[in-house]
Give the backbone structure.
Amino acid sequence: MFLRRLLLLFPIILFHFSKAQKKKNDTVYVYEKVIVYDTIYLEKPIKAKLNSISVPQLNINKTEIKDIIRENIVENKTNSRKQDSLPTNFQYGITAGVGLKNSNWAKELSNKKQQFGESIGVWVSKNIITPRLSLMLSASVYYWNSTFDLDANKEDTYLNGFYFSNDQQPLLFQRFNNKHFEYAFQLKIFYEWNNIRPFVGFLANRNIYKMQFLVPENNVLDKLDDFKNTQNNYGFTLGIEYRFMQRFLLSIDYQQYKMKNISLKNSSFDFDIFDSNNTFAERKINLGLSYIISK
């Protein structure tokens, strides 16, 4: 009986034991605790005295803030007044240039060609009233190349032949061209603005035209003599200059003057081949470069 019960309980106990040995999955929860520590520094002004060296308490001084724009405007006005009140002064220098010349009286002879020429000169100027306004006096020498050539020894020109002076002395034409020197004086007034200097002025000049004749000497017609222009001409000039590199002036100008006749005379003979009452105009355009010598 006992054995029967034991055999009956043995499977039950075995089944229960096998259930107890079955694996199970476990869930594990991990918690992390983060602690943040902040360090606060408190800064206080102190007075310290180390080996007779004292650290004084810092003081903040008040600073006046100025209106820079207004100050600059006032300063510019002051400088402008100072510039206008500058004393007048002299300047002097040299000039050189090239130009083209057109003469009414030589238009037909030269087939309407324009003369090319070179020039050199000196000038002196002085400020007047304000530093922007100046007066200049200049003296220049021009050399104009020929645009025609009448030579009786080479060709038959309309001037070939004998002429007679008022006292009946014979003259034989030889040669004539418009190659000549010109001496000019100019008085100009300038106004300077941003290195630009427009000007207008008055000029006086003399053109040294020359014509050659064979003239009598000891009643023999064998001396070559010159008949020259001796009259002065007056006109005007206008133009503009540009100042660069402090001491250099680049200019372009227009000149015009009138010539009353082309009077070619010789002190030994009372004779003028162009004896008329015509008035001619000469016009020039010049390009020049000046250098200021004065400091």
Observations:
- The radius of gyration is 54 Å.
- The mean pLDDT is 81.
- The longest strand covers residues 170-191.
- The helical segments are 2-20, 68-84.
